[in-house]
Give the backbone structure.
Amino acid sequence: MNNQSAIHITNLLVSAAEKWPNNPALTFADTTRSWKQTFQRCHAAATVYKSFGVGSGDRVAFLGFNSNILFESYFAPALIGAIFIPVNYRLSLREMIECVEDCTPTVLIVDPFFLDQARSMQKACESISTLVFAGPGETPEGMNSYEEKVAELITSASYCTLTPGADDDTVMIFYTGGTTGRSKGVMLSHKNFQINTDCSIPLYRMQENWNFIIMGPLFHLAAGSRVFSGTALGGHCVILPKFDVVEVLSIIEQHKINSGTLVPTMLQMLLDHADFSKFDLSSLKMLAYGAAPMSVALLNRVIQAFPGVEIFQTFGMTEASPIVTSLDSAFHVLEGPKANRLGSVGRPVKHVELKITDNENNEVSNGETGQILVRGDNIMKGYWRLPDQTAEALQDGWYLTGDAGYLDDEGFLFLEGRVKDMIVSGGENVYPIEIENIISDHPAIHQVAVIGIPHDTWGEAVHAIVTLEGNEKPTEAELIKFCKEQIASYKCPVSVTFRDEPMPLSPINKILKTELRRPFWADRKSNLV
């Protein structure tokens, strides 16, 4: 079927179809298909794309919620050497158009929920010659039906020849969140994904034929990486269109799910649900979390709620495809000598080199905070059509993450936030995440963001912006005192804003600190806004 000696993510699919042809591969919307059927559908879809004029290096984009078709799209374009782009449906229409204008896809696949956006994107981007409807029901005028075309190909068995390309060819482009400006397209290769998959399976002690739940959006690699590891293991992947607390709990019980990947917000929503304890979650063997910091208080709840489940933290980024470090389940304990590692994000995984540098790019000693740099075969090829920004991010083989942190003497990485978020107050470097973790432990706090604001004497002063929950209404003085009881005074907020409306969020649900800073720096110069 394929060149098994080459490093291609398509080989994961081919191997699964050969080793476990009749095992369940995907379940979506009450339909389950085997690995043989899934490969046939991907091969048929690749043939359809080729008939639409898609060739090696051309782009195929997808706009829509999670589905079996989105899962299949992780492989189908790659079978003919094309590049796949999952578009973030949380973006505004303007931002979606910017993405397709940048990557110029030939084909745009769209589900029933984003038809108007897809038509607008085609009108704005002349490269999009074909719209493919990825949904049940009647096909909209001017579109081709994915299901009809794939079914016709499978019936005729007139498949195209597989031409997946070279190991280092770009196979997918993921657009970053763009919290500081226009999104950048991260180019990732077959090798990037294979290295990450080969690492993650033993790292998380995942086993063949496990049952996986995919609940995070597949336009992000936090969820997307499970497509590859699930396929490599011949697992049964149950896909949710989007995260829903009751649906997640029901599926874990119904399908005896063994593994899931979540962000802290999802975990908190599960634990907070009134019926959480009524579901049988005993099939779970492993949970991985990441993408955002988790408070120690929430970690304690998770550990207590899932006894016997191995819990792993992952730190990574799209540019690293995505894993950089992991905190093993052995360190997810509430007491004993290993408990003090809960504040870290673990140690670098086997394929990653990591170092901490100062502003002059000199490596610093353990315990000193600086920028986190990483190197390895998992690191992106670069940013699509952005050579200057690629050169800035990739220097001498190292990727400059923009994240700040320090290593302890045993190689555990502790995050201190983003380098650009660092506050310089009276000559002292203050990293907001440390203060945010303290404030988030206060029972009245719902959301918190710590920023630097202008100060005539110190240059910048530490300022906290919070939203509240519950009946308790702490004062500014009480919150500042709460911080001073736990951290050095120079790190503590000198002022607090109590915000009535929710925090401004990016399309990937990260607080937009640039928006929060802007009113304070409107009449001053700051390289942070």
